[in-house]
Amino acid sequence: MAPAGSPNDHFPTLCSCTKLADGQSLYDVKFFPYPTTDEEPIFAVTGSSNIFICRPKLDADPPFEVLRWFQLDDASFLAWCRDPVTRKPLVCVAGERPKQIQIFDVETGEHVRSLVGHGAAINDLAISPLSSSLLASASADYTIRLWNLDPEYEDQPCVAIFAGDGHRQHVLVCHFHPNGRWMLTAGLDTAIALWAVPSMDELTKHRTLDGHPAPLTVYYPHFHSTEVHANYIDTAVFFGDFIVSRAAKDQSEDRAHNKSGQKVKIVPNEILLWRIDGFDSDNDPPAEPPIPSTGVWTRSSFPHDPHSRGFQRLMTFDMPNTTRFYLRFGLLHQPGMRPILAMGNEESRFLFWDLQKLEEGYDPDEEKVVKQPRRRKGKGVAAGAQVNESNLDRLGELRRGESVAGSDAGAGTPDPSSTSISVPPERKYDLGDPFMPLKAHHSVVASTSLSPKKHFAMAQIAWSPDGRWMVGVGDYGMMCIFHRDGSVV
To answer: Which ranges does the UniProt record give for the WD repeats (predicted)?
Structure first.
């Protein structure tokens, strides 16, 4: 355990590393994103033919309990939703076969319904922040489908299909913006796309236009690029209006020659933080999405310098020993909490980055206190930025006006009275080179009964909504549970 007051207090402690499913890999884990009656978090885990519904338990051995266990042919990816009528928790699962989304009632264990439409494997599921009835699915059939689980859509639950000139190979990722109006997708074609999600009014109007229900087809994304990453993109999430994404590819056949003519292994696996020039999620989508043209690898409908590529790389995170694709990081980004990026590699090691520390450019545990005018609340970055604005040159808009944990609210009109605020010392983290891999602030090796030569990789990491729990699942049915005290969240 780190000493009290040290920077490592912000990172969770490994409580348990357990083989949850013997002989089967685990592929996905997600916490129930909605409030519960007892305020205790619940998470679901999928792997091959198993679905586990679990609850973490502090000071217990093991530090979790299995509430329910389902078995079916294939359960690789999952998303939580709620019954539109009863509001009971439902878990949606899908995988390579039978090309359907299966929905189960968590309380009774009963199968509720199946969503049929994709022509190939389903590689990811995501629920909309606007409604627990709006579900997105990404597929190997090159499309993304939007489903409405409300009873009035029972005859045709698929309300939109994102296709056309979006992806030309398997889609591996779909992720909603927190405001629900935008969606990120990415896949094996090394392309990442940003789509405007049709409003409910648009979907309803289209549904009744021809007198019979039919999905609305969205042909073009508003941003599309194969230049952000060079390899398969298996993770992409919003960080405010910024994007954190990861690319990886099996390196067994990926080789090049150095100056001496010798074959060398290429390992371009990386996590990037970047932004789309001119993109503001609060604005209405541009009137027309960009049309594909020959020789153009990035197209964007957002305002940007015509001589630029339309996006900016901001940070690169050093993530060694992650050559496999479909190893996904977990990003904690909730209002009022320190944003933390975490990922497990192929050698049973978890790495953590404190993104607030990188934004501020200093170690928050080495602050000194000075008197500064009190500022009334308003939209802006943390009050500390008024002391040294250069510390927020690159990432000052990360939370788009939300106050950061441990700071006063955003800048506003000075008040005659004064208060003590924290002032950063000399900047420690130079973010001038977005291509310089940033080392993790903290790392933990999972100690298991597996031999040192038989490490395991984490396929997915999830944080609880309250920021106190983190769960990683992966090879050999391994599940690692982390916890931290609520006072440091």
So the answer is: 115-150, 164-205
State the first-to-last Cα distance of the chain, in angstroms, to the nearest integer.
16
Alpha-carbon distance 326 to 367, whole Å? 39
The 10s digit of each residue's pLDDT in 44-85 is: 999 878 899 999 998 888 889 999 998 887 788 999 999 999
Q: Is the CATH number of domain 14-363+431-488 2.130.10.10?
A: yes
Q: Is 177 exposed, middle or buried (0-12, 13-18, 19+ CB in 10 A)?
A: buried
Where are any strands of DSSP class E within 171-269?
171-176, 182-187, 192-196, 216-218, 223-225, 233-239, 242-247, 255-257, 263-265
Domain boundaries, the chain: 14-363+431-488, 368-423
**CA geometry: angle 145, 147, 150, nearest 5 deg:** 175
For 32, residues 6+ apart whose C-beta sits below 8 A from its C-beta are 41, 42, 43, 44, 80, 89
CA 37 vs CA 34, 107, 230, 334, 398: distances in Å: 10, 14, 45, 20, 32
Distance CA 245, CA 225 (A): 13
Sign of CA dihedral 407, 365, 462, 481: negative
For residues 446, 449, 452, 453, the Cα torsion angle rounded to the nearest 10 degrees is: -120
pLDDT, tens digit (0-9, with 9 covering 90-100), for 211-220: 667 899 999 9
Average pLDDT over residues 321-344: 93
In DSSP terms, 187 is beta-bridged to 171
